[in-house]
Design goal:
The complex is a heterodimer of chains A (113) and B (114). Chain A is an all-beta fold. Chain A is built from no helices and 11 strands. In chain A, a hairpin with a 3-residue loop joins strand 4 and strand 5. Chain B has no helices and 11 strands. With 114 residues, chain B is mainly β. In chain B, strand 4 and strand 5 form a beta hairpin. Classes of the chains: A mainly beta (113), B mainly beta (114). At the A-B interface, strand 4, strand 5, strand 9 and strand 10 of A face strand 4, strand 5, strand 9 and strand 10 of B.
């Protein structure tokens, strides 16, 4: 069974631009969560999608948004990029959430110049 | 405020000895806890979990202990192997809030010395 895949793996953008990251969950998994990892803040929850609906959102500004498609693939978008958005963005999937381990993808490394 | 704390940024252990990684939490509503291991350039990999109704869970060389009254959990690795060298994250979940999001600690970098 293929794992969680994320594209692209690396991305360089400049301040003010916007970016879209993609995540394909494990086949059959319907819940997708996004996390941001930075050296100072560690891993922080961005949002979770289940059956195309955002089920929960972390404490991030509205510049961060996401969506999920009918095939469970998910995208997250960051608009008006700031230097502080440079981070590793991780996607995780589970069958339907709940008391289940979340399987993480390798992440997308975003650098904002 | 950090709800899950891993106060040791790093730990070095000799191969074959026990590694003990600690984690403290402040939110008493957390009722499910997980440990993840992360290698550079990879996503976190699930290791072991424990529900708040238990105080111990074992899986091979890995054992997690939970002390609810102290809001403390620990991961024991016995015996430690060089391949265990990685960053270990403690995570907690509060499904009662209607969310299955994970709240992570900042990680402990374990180095197992051959």
């Amino acid at each position: 069974k293929a794992g969680v895949t994320q594209t692209p793996r690396y991305l360089i953008k400049t301040r003010g631009q916007q970016v879209t990251l993609s995540c394909s969950p494990i086949s059959g998994h319907r819940s997708v969560s996004w996390y941001q990892q930075t050296p100072g803040q560690g891993l922080q929850f961005l949002f979770e999608y289940f059956s195309e609906t955002q089920r929960n959102k972390g404490n991030f500004p509205g510049r961060f948004s996401g969506r999920q498609f009918s095939n469970s693939r998910s995208e997250m978008n960051v608009s008006t990029l700031e230097l502080g958005d440079s981070a590793l963005y991780l996607c995780a999937s589970t069958y339907q959430g709940g008391y289940n381990e979340q399987f993480f993808g390798p992440g997308t490394r975003l650098t904002v110049l | 405020d950090q709800q899950v704390k891993q106060n040791s940024p790093s730990l070095s252990v000799q191969e074959g000895r026990i590694s003990i990684l600690n984690c403290d939490y402040t939110n008493s509503m957390f009722d499910y806890f997980l440990w993840y291991k992360k290698y550079p350039a990879e996503g976190p990999t699930f290791l072991i979990s424990i529900s708040s109704i238990k105080d111990k869970n074992e899986d091979g060389r890995f054992t997690v202990f939970l002390n609810k009254s102290a809001k403390h959990l620990s991961l024991h690795i016995v015996p430690s192997q060089p391949g265990d060298s990685a960053v270990y994250f403690c995570a907690a979940m509060n499904p009662g809030a209607g969310s299955y999001q994970l709240t992570f600690g900042k990680g402990t970098k374990l180095s197992v010395i051959p």
